[in-house]
Amino acid sequence: MPKALDAIAALRGKWSGVTDRASLDQPAINVPAADLLAVLGFLKQEQGFDMLADVSGIDWSPGVSPRFTVVYHLLSTTDHEYVRVAVDCPSDTLPEVPSAVGLWQGANWHEREAFDMFGIRFSGHPDLRRILMWDGYPHFPLRKDFPLAGVDTLLPDLEVVAETKTNAIAAPMAGGPFVAASGGINMTNAEPRAKDESWNERRPKPGS
Amino acid sequence: MPVEHIFPDSASRNAQGEFETEKMSLSMGPSHPSTHGVLRLQMELDGEIVTKADPVVGYLHRGDEKIAENMTYNQFVPYTDRLDYLAPLANNMAYAIAVEKLAKLEVPARCQAIRVITAELARISAHMMGLGAFGIDVGAWTVFLYSFTEREKLYKLFEELTGARFTTSYSRIGGVSRDIPAGWTDRVNAFCDQFLPILEEILSLLTRNRIFTDRTVGIGVISREDAVNFGLTGPNLRASGVPLDLRKDKPYSGYEQYDFDVAVGTKGDAYDRYLVRGEEMRQSVRIIKQAIAKLPGGKWYAEDARKIFAPPKEKVLTSMEELIQNFMLVTEGPQMPAGEVYFEAENPKGALGFYVVSKGGGVPYRLKIRAPSFCNLSILPKVCVGAMVSDVVSILGSLDFVMGECDR
């Protein structure tokens, strides 16, 4: 992949904060939040990575710092190469990075999704609303401290709640998740909730 | 005698509020036949012209990414069926390749070829559905009946191969769940032979149909720049003139061995998107025929990948080694190295991507699904503005999205 590696070499000369990121496939870099837009703009305009393929949030678990990372996958539609750009959110409690909507309109929904699922804010985003969950939903479901079963929440329409006396309840897990502890590897490190039995037949569900 | 004009000057007519126009807000969906599932469009209309369109998605949100973090890699395969549920075989393959990339695992050539055949059959099936539904949306019922007949034949083939018509769960990490049955490739070939003339017949119902062209030509034009800017992929991107096809440009699963053309549109309107899908089906048939003609022998799973692929059942029941291997795989999942990979496959709807972050072991730490329908729909606020309400139906039909994938 000469093109992507060239681009990264060129980047490194311009921004000293850019570091290599461990990756099993395409070239990847870590970028400080302050340089994010400049780096993405450089990759888009000067290096031909013209398509924003994906934006993902990652939660590295409560207590880990930096806790939140946003990962951008860029694709060049002419050279057909990917590059991965990762930025750690400076704050663990109020994660915020600059929005890339000014560079790609397509970032709009991706960033709304990361906000919806992780609570990562994107400064400068024109319309940062929830997208998959309903407006006013109080939690961030893909955070690691959110249980797989979900938590009891009021339905969005309070009139319906008053009329039907129902709300969104946590899912019955029936003893799941069904992942056994591994012999060689500590599952609690690999996946904090893999042995989560905070609610099953023997223990009452949280919040009840 | 002068008559009394109640509007002394023409400007005061509107000032008095007599003929003041008011924008109307219209909520289309989530249960609307043209929204193909549970998309809702919150629109603002000036007469019959759309002045603002805000898609509301998430009605089918099941939290697939959260679920993936809580089960082994193999256990997630059935969930991939339910992303783009019109082409589950293609999703199974994309997911398996992403995880195999993480494991640095090469599957045998026979497995690759089988996956290519199934993915292209899935493409035909998905495009048949897309075309049929698009036809209904713009008033051509007949197409739907023809295309569903063809899908039924495909489902028979899928059922024979995988045991299920709809939710196939055919791929495993490191292979496919079973080898192709005897005589199946002949039946696929026979299907392809009878399918080509029927495809021409179906397309001839639309291509020069006056009603169809009136409702699609010049409607929902997406420029080349916008298509790239919004991250459109698949037929929707190619209809706008960008010849990006991951099967050609980033070949995976042995696509580089097959000879096929990439259909590219010129105008980027709804009609171009229809034409591109039609041509893609012809090319899929070409790929399937080549793949069957040179289908390699050998195993359909990576035999050496003992910590990843489950051994054959008869060996599990007779041999200690395989029993342990099977037990470890079921309880702990396929053992993966730590690291992160991103893989996109050219699915019927566009580039389906999986971003896998692993800390080792049998469970992904984070699995992000890049859904092509999600990205394709994000252009709606731009492309719907200025269109008539009836054009919105045509635009939605031509974008050919699946909400199961968009909402995940």
Structure commentary:
The complex is a heterodimer of chains A (208) and B (408). By secondary structure, chain A is of the alpha/beta class. Chain A folds into two domains: 2-123, NADH:ubiquinone oxidoreductase Nqo5 subunit (Beta Polymerase, domain 2); 147-208, no CATH class. Helix content of chain A is 22%, strand content 17%. Chain A contains five helices and seven strands, in the order H-E-E-H-E-E-E-E-H-E-H-H. In chain A, the strands form two sheets. Chain A has a five-stranded mixed sheet with strand order 1-2-5-4-3. Chain A has a two-stranded parallel sheet with strand order 6-7. The radius of gyration of chain A is 20 Å and the shape is elongated. Helices cover 47% and strands 13% of the residues of chain B. The radius of gyration of chain B is 25 Å and the shape is globular. Chain B has one domain (73-407): Cytochrome-c3 Hydrogenase, chain B (Orthogonal Bundle). Chain B is of the alpha+beta class and 408 residues long. In chain B, a hairpin with a 2-residue loop joins strand 2 (40-46) and strand 3 (49-56). In chain B, the strands form three sheets. A three-stranded antiparallel sheet of chain B has the order 1-2-3. A three-stranded antiparallel sheet of chain B has the order 6-7-8. Chain B has helices spanning 12-15, 64-68, 77-81, 88-103, 109-137, 141-162, 184-206, 210-216, 224-229, 235-239, 246-249, 270-293, 313-316, 320-332, 372-377, 380-383, 389-399, 403-407, and strands spanning 24-28, 40-46, 49-56, 171-172, 175-176, 336-347, 350-361, 366-370. In chain B, 54% of the residues are buried. The chains are: A alpha/beta (208), B alpha+beta (408). The interface between A and B is large, with 54 and 58 residues.
